[in-house]
């Protein structure tokens, strides 16, 4: 409207005041001043000015008509948004929803500029629609997490290259200069709505032959093996970050829902692996060391994504930094606690395996062993080497070393108990065969970097096995008591044994030929 006023005032007679805010021509003083200015003009000047004024009035009339039409459009838009929020929120695709918001926001801003007043009604309705959409979106994404984790086979999958692009975008956004990232609008350029999320399947399948894929995904210097549920989590979190950065009035809702998704993923993985829910839901026969290793790796990957999300959201809204930090720190703590429980479960599995191997050792006839090392020792080393291959493929090196140290300690303790009481060996050759088995196992373990060997105490225990005990003469309890009394110095009269009668100090010398102690 200010532009129209300026246009009309440009064609006022010379000397007539220009206020810039319009003039009330019904005022008597204004009319008198206009009359004086017009009388001072020449006829040619008057006709020229009149023509310009007429042309401007035609333009203004057309402009007013357009404004009237736009006003009607605004009323129609208000009615549509007000009466059909559920219809709009039924949009499932994030790209479609954000496109609708962008068009509506652009429309509202232009209308406000043209009309010179705020369109609070339609803005309020869009906020309402956005919240309904976010509620539906959370339900849908939660369902995706539940379904894919429940049916997770915990096998390594190759990741389409698109997912590495998602990760790279998150890393770039988190590493950008904090001065540059003053708010969500400047941060949003790192996660454009036209990004590769439109090309990524919500539930990743095996990559087609003509589609580029990666064996592992990389974050900085760390690499992670992927399972299907990890890829799904990455895509969902990326989309929530897009919402937070591109739709300002949904920022807090997006932060809250992102936290919910992280918690749900952790809880579901805990249920299917620690609680053995995958045995029923995914049809797995048992929860193996490989399953636990990949589940632990999935949590490690999620922890990296949590850290990236926390940095990005904090940079986008510094005023919410404390709130975001508190929420995400609790989530991180839960993830770390859960992964520790997974490693404990892995150790408990190997503890049972150690007991099984100890039983096999005690059942091995080492006195008559046909070949060395025994089949039992070969089985132990084969299993430990296979476990080593799994752990060092899917876990962090530090976790592998500490876990294997605990496993070997468990094997030491279990084998020690076996050699102290359960194992049956009666010859020196049998003892040597056991020691050879222990040395063979240690030789194989020495070839595995970061893995300790079995304790030297096991060899000492085997060397101390008594080979003669079972072959000593068997005495009755009465004779054994008599022998102890004899050793103590009091000797009742027993045929065949020399003894001293303390009272008479007389020495008796029966024949030793009939002594029951020296047959």
Automatic annotation (TrEMBL):
One of its GO terms (biological process) is Golgi to vacuole transport. Its main location: Golgi. It holds the Pfam family Vps54. One of its GO terms (cellular component) is cytosol. Keywords: Coiled coil, Golgi apparatus, Protein transport, Transport. It is found in: Golgi apparatus, trans-Golgi network. GO terms for molecular function: syntaxin binding. Signal peptide: none annotated. The keyword DNA-binding does not apply. InterPro entries: Vps54 (IPR039745), Vps54_C (IPR012501). Residues 222-353 form the Vacuolar protein sorting-associated protein 54 C-terminal domain. Belongs to the VPS54 family. This is Vacuolar protein sorting-associated protein 54, chloroplastic. It comes from Zancudomyces culisetae.
